[in-house]
Amino acid sequence: MEQLAEKVLENSRGHVARAITLVESTKPSHRLQAHELLQRLAPHTGNAFRVGISGVPGAGKSTFIDAIGVKLIAEHHHKVAVLAVDPSSSRTGGSILGDRTRMADLSNREGAFVRPSPSSGHLGGVARATRESMLVLEAAGYDVIIVETVGVGQSEVAVSGMVDTFLMLQVARTGDQLQGIKRGILELADVIAITKADGDNESAARVAARELTIAMKLISGEPDKRRAPVLTCSSYTGAGLEEVWETVTKHRAALEADGDLVTRRLAQQRDWLWNMVREEVLESLRTAPGVRRVAADVEARVAAEAISALEGSAEILAAYAAAVPTLAWAAPPRDPLDADKA
């Protein structure tokens, strides 16, 4: 782990990829190694600009990231890393992981690192280890980390809980301004951009931006509360991309000036802590031997309508409660310096 950490800090691309694979692994021995690796990298993290990008399917998220990423490298001299989360099949568990094909230009840039990851059934539009992967990339020297989520739904808002600025992409002709109220995700957006504002669609994009601006006013009636600005852009022509990035950076600068950036990141760490606890509890519920023995019988009786689902769940939870004292979670070793740091 010491050698791997050194290679990550040197931005060896192969070792950065290996480190991300390690933190994504669910194997207990790998998780202990990942914990040690992240401890070694921790002093070199936290300095990047974390941007989350989400949007409805077909909004052009990958194409937008390809265009804006190339601009950031070529004109702003940033080092850009992209964590592209791909939805996993609920039947086979597989993912296409084809986002690199939509980011061909960015993927071939020296200052870019594009990593597709499967969601693996994790809700919120992000992968289980997205946050840890961000830390690895920050330690490798990437100063702009972009997290692209899967197509959003009502619950896919976890990305807003791990980035500094959340950029929401929308397209024109997807409904009236009431959609802005119906989609709760817009309440979490810091900046909104209407994409594909080119050719015959340019005027429709501007109309959509005006309607969405009205919708944002309806979401929050507080006059002093900041509302997410709505802009238009085209990844094809490049029009509006600079304005979108300026608005994104202004939001982050405002957070930093007010001291809210530190507060936001601390709150995100706390939320992610409990998210990981929930994941561990669910995983132990699925894998506990005592539960697995009872579950098959309970499922059969529920299927035969011998008992209700409520009764069956009570039996499984009772089996889990009995198994809890014997469960051996892979608790990482405590850092002896933690007390001094506190």
TrEMBL record:
<comment type="similarity">
    <text>Belongs to the SIMIBI class G3E GTPase family. ArgK/MeaB subfamily.</text>
</comment>
<dbReference type="GO" id="GO:0005737">
    <property type="term" value="C:cytoplasm"/>
</dbReference>
<dbReference type="InterPro" id="IPR005129">
    <property type="entry name" value="GTPase_ArgK"/>
</dbReference>
<dbReference type="GO" id="GO:0003924">
    <property type="term" value="F:GTPase activity"/>
</dbReference>
<dbReference type="InterPro" id="IPR027417">
    <property type="entry name" value="P-loop_NTPase"/>
</dbReference>
<dbReference type="GO" id="GO:0005525">
    <property type="term" value="F:GTP binding"/>
</dbReference>
<dbReference type="Pfam" id="PF03308">
    <property type="entry name" value="MeaB"/>
</dbReference>
<protein>
    <submittedName>
        <fullName>Methylmalonyl Co-A mutase-associated GTPase MeaB</fullName>
    </submittedName>
</protein>
